[in-house]
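Worked problem 6 (solution included).
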Amino acid sequence: MGSRRDFVKTSVGVSAGAALGVFPKSLHGAPNVVIRRVTPTCVASANGLEAVSLAIRELANGADTIDAIVRGVNLVEQDPRDTSVGYGGLPNQDGVVQLDSSLMHGPTRGAGAVAAIEGVKRPSLVALDVMRYTDHHLLVGEGAQRFAKSMGHPIEDLVTPESRRRWIEWRARLSDQDDYLLPAESGEPVEQFRTPSEFGDGLLDSHDGFRPQGTINCDIVDANGDLSSVTTTSGLAYKIPGRVGDSPIIGAGQYCDNDVGAAGSTGRGEAVIKTCGSHTIVELMRNGMHPKDACLEALRRIVHVTVESRLRREDGRPNFSVNYYAVNKMGQYGGAAIYAGARYAVSVDGDARLEDSAYLFERADG
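Solution. The predicted structure is:
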C-alpha cells in the first residue's frame, strides 16, 4: 500500500490536471474525468449566431443540451433566407429539396440521423425522434419521410420562389445549346438572395465554381460538462438526387463523446466523409489537443488525401473549403478552415459573437 504522502501527491496532480483542462487517461484509453463547473459554451457555423444565442438561453432555462441546440438550429432550418439549410434550401438537379441531419446526445450516448428526406422543414427534429423512439441511428429517403409523418411532422413543399428561381438559372447555365432561358433572357426580374457566403464562412467554395454548398453545425457544453452536437443541411446545391454528404453521417458531419468533446463540419462533405472528420477531431482532443488545434490537424489530413486533379489548384492545394468547429468538456472551443476568411459563431455564457476561424492557407497563396 502507498503512503499517505503518495496519495496526497496523486490527488493534487489530478486536481491540477482538471483545472488545466487535462484529463489523465485510464488503462482503456478513456479519460478519468473529474467533473467541475464549466462556463456554458456553444459554437456553430457562422450562420448560427442566433442559434448559439438561443441554445445558451435554453440551457439557462433548464433545457437539456440536445434540446437546446436543436431548438437553435431550428431557427435556421425554418428560415427561407438561408438557402443552405431546411426550408428554402437549394434543390437537387431535379428541383427537389432533399435534407440531411444528424445529432448526438452526450449524456445518454444517443445518436440519430436522417438523409435525403423530403418535405420536412426541420429534419433535425426527425433525427431527434430517430434517436429517442427507434433502435436505429439512420433513416433515409422515403422511409425517413414516412417515419416523420408517423411522428406528426407535417409534409410540405420546401421549394420557395427564390430557391426555384436560382435552380432555373442553374439549369439554364448547363448548356447554351438547350431550350432553357436564363431568367434575364426570359424577361423575369432577377433578384438578389442571401447566400451562405454573406455570413463570412466561405461555404460557397466549390470545385465547379457555381454550386453553393452550406450547412449549420452546432456543438454545446453545459455547466456540468455535458455535451451534444447537431448538423443539418440541404447539402450541395443541384446535387444528383440521392446524394448524401457528411451531415447525416455520424463521425463525419458531427460527433460527440461526453468524456471528451463535440465537433462538426461544413463545406465539402465528400472530403469530410473520407477522413471521418468530426470523429478525428474528438479523438485528437481526447489525446490532449486544444479544439482549435484539433480542427487544424483534421484539415491537414484532408489536404493530404486530396489527390484528384479536379479537386486541386495549380499549387496542389484543395480548390474547395471545409470548416470545422469544436468544443471540449472544459468549455474550450475553436474553429478552423482550409483557407483564411472564414468565421464561426460562439456564445460563452450568453455572450454571442462571430470569431475568425484559424486556417491553413491564405486565399491569395498560389
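Discussion: Residues 1-27, 189-210 have pLDDT under 50 and may be disordered.
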